[in-house]
Amino acid sequence: MNHHYNKNLKQYADELRNTSVSRAEKYLWKAGLSRKKLGVGFKRQRPIDRFIVDFFCAEVNLIIEVDGNSHNFKGAYDRYRQDRLESLGYLVIRFQEGEVINCYPEVENKILRVIEVLKSRQ
User: Fold this and answer.
1) Residues 4, 98: Cα–Cα separation, whole Å
2) Is pLDDT of 20 > 70?
3) Which of 70, 88, 96, 100 is deepest in the core (most CB within 10 A)?
4) Is residue 2 a part of any domain in this protein?
């Protein structure tokens, strides 16, 4: 299953992964999402459908988005994007940049609880 992978966005996703990753995204990746530290594998800047998501776990169909200042005026678009991704069968959870950096243990606990629930439904 390709999980709605969009190869046409691959080059752009690669550029995002290497050039414009936020401090919070780097922190979340290193602290918890890389190397299956939370028990499941994640990919960064993954092209899904017509979007590039921050983090994606195929094992449990989970998408994690980190919202920085650029999201302050994109509420309607973020809602549309999230609704579209959820209509494809994914669960999308969002964190604010400051939340990731300043309250990481709580963020990690929430992600772990969501993974546990999603695994229990399989």
Assistant:
1) 30
2) no
3) 100
4) no
For residue range 93-118, what is the model confidence (pLDDT) as tens digits?
Answer: 999 999 999 999 999 999 999 999 99
Strand, coil or helix: 38: coil
C-alpha 82/C-alpha 115 separation (Å) is: 18
Alpha-carbon distance 81 to 87, whole Å? Answer: 10
Examine the pLDDT at 80 and tell me if it is beyond 90: yes
Where do runs of H (alpha helix) occur along 1-122? Answer: 10-19, 23-28, 75-87, 97-102, 104-120
Contact present, 100 and 28 (Cβ < 8 Å): yes
Per the structure, the count of domains in the chain is 1
For residue 52, the enclosing domain spans 7-120
The helix (run of H) or strand (run of E) holding residue 117 is: helix 104-120
Q: How buried is 93 (Cβ within 10 angstroms: 0-12 exposed, 13-18 middle, 19+ buried)?
A: middle
CATH number at residue 20: 3.40.960.10
Predicted pLDDT at 107: 98
